[in-house]
């Protein structure tokens, strides 16, 4: 027995005035309409309708039951309309975790554009280079750089994460421009303390050479290293997206372009069930569309 359907049938009988009219409105047979009403009466142990060959009227119990049932069905309809509205107009909170460089330089401007399209959505962007767990740390979406272990998470590929070596024009004028990887040994290389676990630059097409050394300055923050490089302190190995504006304006100059480190994989990760949330699915689709149409981070 479907109690909600039986409630609807009973209310239609009351509104239509008889079983036959209710049956026509509902697209059921009059026999099936009568069955629904009888099932409710048997369930409740009380008659809800007094029926004769010419008329019908609600019993006192029927009046109370119909009033309550109408309220229940209205609340259900309200709940359905609310969910439909959420599909049409995404809303709610979405928590995102991303590495500092990707999050500050790329994710933050991107979600700003998204929020202009869907102002009822709220986004929390947490920047950290630490590994986070979607469930334990209560994130909806994670941007992860590097190879992925096998898991049940949904992984959507983004453009690769390219690192570049660059320095300020004045620094290169004073110290010269390195032509081959081993030239780095006579340069001041500014290291990132959390990348690769120690200060080293694994270069591509360098016959196995990987610069490892002690520069005059090291930091665990990409922005601090960029500022040091802009001030002429030495060369930096940084994500291209973090220094793209400096390279385009000439504040920094890329060197050893043919020896750029192998690009790292980048993925969006989320739990399979999250795709059912309209605002979340719109955000994922928006991010993928913005990056894949150019093949890079804009």
From TrEMBL:
Residues of the HTH lysR-type domain: 1-59
One Gene Ontology MF term: DNA-binding transcription factor activity
Pfam families associated with the record: HTH_1, LysR_substrate
GO BP, one annotated term: DNA-templated transcription
Domain of life assignment: Bacteria
Keyword Transcription regulation among record annotations: yes
PANTHER family for this protein: HTH-TYPE TRANSCRIPTIONAL ACTIVATOR TTDR-RELATED (PTHR30537:SF5), HTH-TYPE TRANSCRIPTIONAL REGULATOR (PTHR30537)
Name of the protein in its database record: HTH lysR-type domain-containing protein
Species name: Pseudomonas graminis
């Amino acid at each position: 027995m479907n109690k909600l359907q039986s409630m609807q049938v009973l209310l239609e009988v009351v509104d239509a005035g008889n079983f036959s009219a209710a049956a026509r409105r509902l697209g059921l047979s009059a026999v099936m309409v009568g069955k629904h009403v009888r099932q409710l009466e048997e369930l409740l142990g009380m008659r809800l309708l007094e029926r004769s060959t010419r008329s019908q009227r609600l019993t006192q119990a029927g009046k109370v039951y119909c009033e309550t049932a109408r309220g229940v069905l209205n609340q259900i309809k309200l709940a359905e309309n609310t969910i439909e509205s959420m599909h049409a107009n995404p809303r709610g909170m979405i928590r995102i975790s991303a590495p500092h460089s990707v999050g500050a330089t790329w994710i933050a401007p991107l979600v700003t554009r998204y929020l202009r399209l869907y102002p009822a959505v709220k986004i929390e962007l947490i920047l950290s280079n630490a590994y986070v767990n979607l469930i334990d740390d209560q994130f909806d979406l994670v941007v992860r750089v590097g190879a992925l272990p096998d898991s049940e998470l949904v992984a959507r590929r983004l453009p690769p994460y390219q690192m570049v070596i660059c320095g300020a024009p004045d620094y290169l004028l004073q110290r010269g421009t390195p032509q081959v990887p081993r030239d780095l040994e006579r340069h001041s290389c500014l290291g990132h303390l959390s990348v690769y676990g120690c200060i080293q630059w694994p270069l591509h097409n360098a016959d196995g050479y990987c610069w490892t050394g002690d520069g005059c300055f090291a930091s665990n923050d990409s922005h601090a290293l960029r500022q040091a490089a802009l001030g002429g302190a030495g060369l930096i190995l940084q994500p291209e997206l973090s220094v793209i504006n400096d390279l385009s304006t000439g504040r920094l100059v890329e060197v050893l372009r043919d020896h750029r480190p192998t690009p790292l994989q980048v993925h969006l990760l989320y739990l399979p069930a999250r795709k059912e949330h309209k605002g979340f699915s719109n955000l994922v689709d928006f991010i993928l569309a913005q990056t894949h149409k150019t093949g890079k981070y804009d």
